[in-house]
Amino acid sequence: xxxxxxxxVGSHSSGRSVAPSSVVSAVxxxxxxxxxxxxxxxxxxxxxxxxxxxxxxxxPLSDDGTRSLPFxxxxxRAQRAADIWGHGLRVESMAVAVWRDRELPDADRxxxxxxINWSGPRLVGWSFTPTEVLNRLAxxxxxxxxx
Length: 147
Description:
By secondary structure, the chain is of the alpha+beta class. It has helices spanning about 20-45, 75-85, 95-110, 130-145, and strands spanning about 5-10, 15, 45-50, 55-60, 70, 90-95, 115, 125-130. The strands form three sheets. Strands 2-8-7-5 form a four-stranded mixed β-sheet. Strands 1-4 form a two-stranded antiparallel ribbon. Helix 1 crosses helix 4 and helix 3 runs antiparallel to helix 4. Mean pLDDT is about 80; it is low at about 1-25.
């Protein structure tokens, strides 16, 4: 089981790399493809996934001192994260409209970044500001409608 050095953000119902600098270059390609999958899948399914326990949801600290609230585009991806982090975390889903209209603004007010489809044995990946996430979702939705 991996170490769990994360702040638990209890007020939530729910890019920068947050990987240690020694592994950033090794995960950039993987992180980019995971982010692309997120912004492709979420507008199509209308659902985002996160992990939590009774205390809240993990918000790991990156090397630069920022915290990210991670979300995934599928239940399977979120379940892998819950299994890696352990500590009794469970997977939950939320409609993307609720996430977009309530959770992202809350995260922005709290100064949190949004982790996108973190993967691998150390759960690394890209994080974006809530505004960046909203812009990418809007662009993905526009592309999906015109494609």
